[in-house]
Amino acid sequence: MDLKNKKVAFFDMDGTLVDSETLYFQTRKEVLAKYGFDYQKSENNKLLATGFEPTLRYLQQKRH
Fold first, then answer.
1. Per-residue pLDDT, 1
2. 51's torsion region: left (phi>0), alpha (psi -120 to 50) or beta?
3. Tell me, what DSSP letter sits at residue 15?
4. What's phi and psi for 2, nearest 5 deg?
């Protein structure tokens, strides 16, 4: 992709343009279900905007 002639860039960090959180939750729920884990919206809400490391730690604790 050639970005040299682009004059505008959009960043949607909070879901203003696209609701990516719903898709992200559904995908995570489906993948975890394949491995025998139940994953609820309330769990996902606690992990919003926490980053990869806290999410990874949470999911690792969930398997024990």
1. 64
2. left
3. S
4. -95, 115
